[in-house]
Amino acid sequence: MTTKATSAHEPVGRLLHWLGLHRSEGEASRRGAPPPGPDESRDLARGARRELAETISYFLIDNGLDVSPANLLLAHSAFSGSNPQLARQIAARAKSADGITQQWLDELAEQDAARPEQADLERLMARLESNVDAFQAHTKAARGVTRDYGTELEQHVIDLEQVQKTGQLVTNLAGLAKAMLERTRKAEDDMRRSEDEARALRRSLARATREAEIDYLTGLPNRRAFEALLEHHYTEARAACEPLSVAFCDIDEFKRVNDTHGHEAGDRVIKLIADTLAHISDDHCHVARHGGEEFVMLFRGLPPSEAAARLDEAREALANRRLINRKTDQPFGQITFSGGVADLFGYGDSRGALKAADEALYRAKEAGRNRIELA
Questions:
Q1: Cβ distance 307 to 247 under 8 Å?
Q2: Is residue 257 a contact partner of residue 335, using CB atoms and an 8 Å limit?
Q3: Residue 157: is its pLDDT beyond 90?
Q4: Nearest one of 316, 287, 302, 304 to 340, comparing CA atoms
């Protein structure tokens, strides 16, 4: 069995070797070693990219899938850590009797494509904001020029009217200049109104941007807002040599809650978990709804062990409660969540750490749920 598996992966190994992504003995010996120092960050990032390439390649070849752009994109999204929910769908399907097939993967890709692309929305909002800025700048400059021209023209009108015995020609010129002055003043007023409208649009855009970063059900930041927080704290904590940990949390057996009590009750359970996690958040601990029944947390200044301990206290407090559905007076039973925690600086990049935290969450589920696991 081992010989057969190795030979199946030989083409992948040769391809990775040709691309310069093969693993040296020195690199292999460092697997499982403590996190590297700053001087080795480039090697660590390269190793993470190599490992991701191997994982994607083995996934496609072992399951007899096409090496197509769509499959590569889906596999990268799952195994890079950018879409943990997709990774769990693939893991669950791999364990089922049906296995992973090209038809199933195509259906998964269609479902993913049917959802609105958040990145496209962000690009459109950024472009609109940029256009509003440019419009305001150009309008302000044009209004300034118009105002200066109007002031100059007004002075010419005064000078013409003060000239004695000028004759009909000068009188006509003065009348024409007055008409031009009125039009200039009107153009200045119109541009001022345009500036006011642009400012109002900018305020509306800023409000829409803020609202786009809030999850409507829980009031927590959503995935988009969390990614911005992650980038900010990742940069700051690295520069300050502070620990930074990330955790994924997922409500245990949530489908049972929905099936038994209905989706409205399921929403209340999601809100309860959100409130439980928000209770332990502060300026250095941020919680967001990542999607569905999944939450993500960022712990600034805490190593993974301390972050896991803090999260475990919240888990235990929730597990000890006995909850009742207010609409039906039926008990919910025990509501719990599982979690996985990782060190953001223990991997090649933040995506690698997110993937590790999600894998730790998956281990917590496999080990019986209602527990926190360290990556």
A1: yes
A2: yes
A3: no
A4: 304
- CA 44, 50, 56, 58 dihedral sign is negative
Residue pair 229/288 in contact by the 8 Å Cβ criterion: yes
Q: Which residues, at least 6 apart from 328, have a Cβ–Cβ distance to it below 8 Å?
A: 261
CB-neighbour burial class of residue 52 (10 A; exposed 0-12, middle 13-18, buried 19+): buried
Distance CA 208, CA 213 (A): 9
Residues 279-299: tens digit of each pLDDT = 988 888 999 999 889 999 999
- Note the pLDDT tens digit of each residue in 53-98: 888 888 888 888 888 888 888 888 888 877 777 888 888 888 888 8
Extended strands (E) in the chain:
244-251, 285-291, 294-300, 323-324, 331-333, 337-343, 372-374
Rg of the Cα trace of the chain? Answer: 31
Question: Which residue bears the tokens 């890709």?
Answer: 109
Question: Per residue, what are the HEC states of 191-252?
Answer: HHHHHHHHHHHHHHHHHHHHHHCECCCCCCECHHHHHHHHHHHHHHHHHHCCCEEEEEEEEC
DSSP 3-state of 343: strand
pTM for this prediction:
0.56
DSSP state, residue 347: S
> How far apart are alpha carbons 121 and 266 in whole angstroms?
29
Residue type at 333?
G
In sequence order, the 6+-apart residues with CB closer than 8 A to the CB of 254 are 266, 269, 293
Query: What residues form DSSP beta bridges with 291?
Result: 294
Q: Which two tokens stand for residue 10?
A: 């030989």
Digit-coded pLDDT (tens) for 337-360 = 999 999 999 998 898 999 999 999
Would you say how long the chain is, in residues? 375
Report residue 294 as tokens: 């999944």
Q: Give percent helix, percent strand, percent coil of the chain, each to the nearest 5.
A: 65, 10, 25
